[in-house]
Amino acid sequence: MGRSYSLETFDLDFFDDAPVRHVIDVRLPVTPQRAWAEFTRQNTLDWCRAIKKIEFTSPPPYGAGATRKAVLGPGYVTLEEDFFHWTEEPETGRYHNAFRVKSANVPGIRRFGEATQIDPADVGCRLRWTFALELPTDSKIVTAFSGPASSTVYKSIEADTLKHFANLPSAT
User: Fold this and answer.
1) What are the backbone dihedrals phi and psi of residue 126, each rounded to the nearest 5 degrees, phi first?
2) What are residue 93's phi and psi, to 5 degrees?
3) Going residue by residue through the chain (172 aa), what tens digit of pLDDT does each one get?
């Protein structure tokens, strides 16, 4: 990974209080179990153009304490992720996990993480995917992560996710 910059830790409340937040809240045409299986498999998010690679670096079964490495965009940004929350309720179709980035190969990020929540819906399931970020106020990358360019990235992640699940068989 080359040079690595440590990020600050946080708890679940950060996803509500972060200075920069983006929420993707969509319905997916698959069962909650099927959606969860896609979001928690090795090499997940391979359907997103904005993400080059995501790889669990800890062995399955995955849960709280699992670790991943993510390479974003054309491969310039590498993140080391640590899942600190993981709840699976297959009997109710409710799933939730959250990770925080422990380190990144780019400076200027104070805290960053994602929370994924999947719940049953009348048809298929509801995905609520929250991205939370804190940057130093004097950081030059603030606008890159919170301005129009970042909005385009989140829109592509949402569009790619909707397309992936629309083409995915609904069987678990």
Assistant:
1) -110, 130
2) 75, 25
3) 479 999 999 999 999 999 999 999 999 999 999 999 999 999 999 999 999 999 999 999 999 999 999 999 887 899 999 999 999 999 999 999 999 999 999 988 999 999 999 999 999 999 999 999 998 876 555 555 556 567 888 999 999 999 999 998 755 4
Class of residue 76 by CB neighbours under 10 A (exposed 0-12, middle 13-18, buried 19+): exposed
For 89, list phi and psi in degrees, rounded to 5: -130, 75
Query: Taking the alpha carbons of 164, 168, 171, 172 in that order, is the dihedral positive or negative?
Result: negative
Q: Give the predicted TM-score (pTM) of the model.
A: 0.91
The residue with tokens 């972060």 is 18
* Cis? peptide before 136, omega within 30° of 0: no
For residue 84, what are the CA distances in angstroms to 11, 34, 81, 118, 132? 8, 22, 10, 17, 15
152/130 Cα distance (integer angstroms): 16
C-alpha distances in Å from residue 121, one per residue of 26, 56, 61, 118 = 10, 29, 26, 9
Q: How far is CA 71 from the centre of its chain?
A: 12
Distance CA 31, CA 17 (A): 30
